[in-house]
Each structure stands twice: as C-alpha cells, then as structure tokens.
Design a protein that fits this description.
Keywords: ANK repeat, Repeat. One of its GO terms (molecular function) is RNA nuclease activity. By secondary structure, the chain is mostly helical. The mean pLDDT is 90. The chain is 51% helix and 0% strand. Helix 7 packs antiparallel against helix 8, helix 8 runs parallel beside helix 10 and helix 9 packs antiparallel against helix 10. The chain folds into two domains: 97 residues, Serine Threonine Protein Phosphatase 5, Tetratricopeptide repeat (Alpha Horseshoe); 119 residues, Serine Threonine Protein Phosphatase 5, Tetratricopeptide repeat (Alpha Horseshoe), CATH 1.25.40.20.
C-alpha cells in the first residue's frame, strides 16, 4: 500500500538498498515503475543512492529506463550526478537516453557528470553521443563550464576533444575560463588557455576572466601568503596576464 505521498514498499526498499526486499516485492508483482508524488521511481532512487544490484534487478524486471520525475530527472541524471559509474554503464547498456534534460536548468546527464568531475562517466556519456555543447539555463551553461566552475581540470580534456567550444558563453555571457578564474582554479585556467580560451571576452556585466581573477585576488589581499586561494589567484593572474596580449579588461 502506498502512503499519501505515493511512497510504496518497493520505493522504500530500493532507496535504502534492501535487495532481498526488492526481489520479493518484484516476485509478488510490484510495479517497478510506480512513482511517488514527485515522480521518483524505484529505479531513479536506486540509481541516486548507488545501489547497483537493485538497479540491475529493476532493469531485468522491465523498469522504464528513461522515466523522468516531475523535476525532469532520470535515473541516468541521478547516477551521473552522484558519480555511480557502474550504474551509468548498466543504464546505458539498456539504451538510456543521453539527450534527456531536467526541467529546472535544462541540464543533461553530461552536464551533471561534468559538475562533479566524474571523468569516466563523462567519457561513457560522450561515447554514447551526448551533446557536448548543449547549453543549459542561465545559471549553468555547457558541460565545459560546469567542469571549469568546479576546477575539474582533468574533465576538460575529453570535453574539448569531443568538440566543446572553449569560448562559448551562457545567457549571462559567462565563459568556462571566467568560471575557472572566478573560482581560482589554476590548472583549469591553464588547460582552457592552452585550448584557446580568450581572457578578454566580457559577460553582460562587462567582466572578463582577467577582471574576475583580479577581483578574487583583491578580495583575498588580507589573506596569509601561504593561503591556498591567494596562491591560486596569483597563478591565474600570471597565466592571464602572460597570454592576454595586452587586451583591455
């Protein structure tokens, strides 16, 4: 029996990793796709919380691999965001769509994997045709921007190799380089500059990567010289000033 919020024994068992309970419920014809009021199915919950064996059980029972919650999140979104590689692989084996977008920021699974710097998942999604230059909502942008904002330098390589536009701008005019500079991520800044990132591009507020790095440095000017953020901002400024070729900020 379901609660008023649509929570069923199967949903609870899948979310909490109770594999034997899931098996018994499925054997007694529990619907693998029955959602709660938020549209979460057992597969979505098991994928989110990393219960690989339960995900495989549900997929074997015919669970809808592309069901989306009322927020637009699929099992692939949840597993990609959380970094559950084996679950991502299981979902892709069942032809989970890499093109689905959630309905808050229109993010794909690739963008969510990039935000977490989940390199192997990024590569798996790209191998299945994920759109590397999909532009999500104003607070996100592209997968490259998501990786840069988190300072995930290693994740930038496969995205750039797949054709990510290094100087793409989101709806606020922000580039991946701006986000890396603003977050004080020197390795990400270096990788983006090497790929042709332009430190002179300005957003809608007339800020460039260089001016954002300067703002970061000034906001940390009272910090100890050994402070990591202060050290990172100095590296970023050196990179940008060296490669800016005299552009006005």
């Amino acid at each position: 029996a379901a609660t008023q919020r649509g929570e069923t024994p199967l949903l609870a068992a899948a979310m909490n990793g109770h594999q034997n309970c899931v098996k018994k419920l499925l054997d007694h014809f529990a619907s693998p796709d029955a959602p709660n009021v938020d549209g979460h199915t057992a597969l979505i919950l098991a994928s989110k919380f990393g219960h690989t064996d339960i995900v495989n059980q549900l997929l074997s029972s015919g669970a809808d691999v592309d069901h989306q919650s009322r927020f637009g999140l699929s099992a692939l979104h949840e597993a990609s965001s959380a970094g559950h590689l084996k679950i991502v692989e299981a979902l892709l084996k069942m032809n989970a769509s890499v093109k689905l977008v959630e309905n808050v920021e229109n993010e794909t699974a690739l963008i969510q994997a990039a935000r977490g710097g989940h390199l192997a998942i990024i590569e798996a999604l790209l191998a299945r045709g994920a759109e590397v230059n999909h532009l999500a909502g104003p607070n996100t942008g592209t997968a490259l921007m998501a990786a840069a904002a988190g300072g995930h330098a290693a994740a930038l390589g496969p995205l750039l190799a797949a054709g990510a536009r290094v100087n793409a701008q989101n709806r606020q005019g922000t580039t991946a380089l701006m986000l890396a500079a603003k977050g004080s991520h020197p390795e990400a800044v270096g990788a983006l500059m090497e790929a042709g990132g332009d430190p002179a591009i300005q957003d809608v507020y007339r800020r460039s990567a260089l001016s954002l790095a300067l703002d970061f440095k000034n906001s940390n000017s009272c910090a100890n010289d050994e402070d990591e953020s202060s050290f990172s901002s100095e590296i970023i400024l050196q990179l940008l000033l060296t490669m800016d070729n005299g552009s006005v900020i």
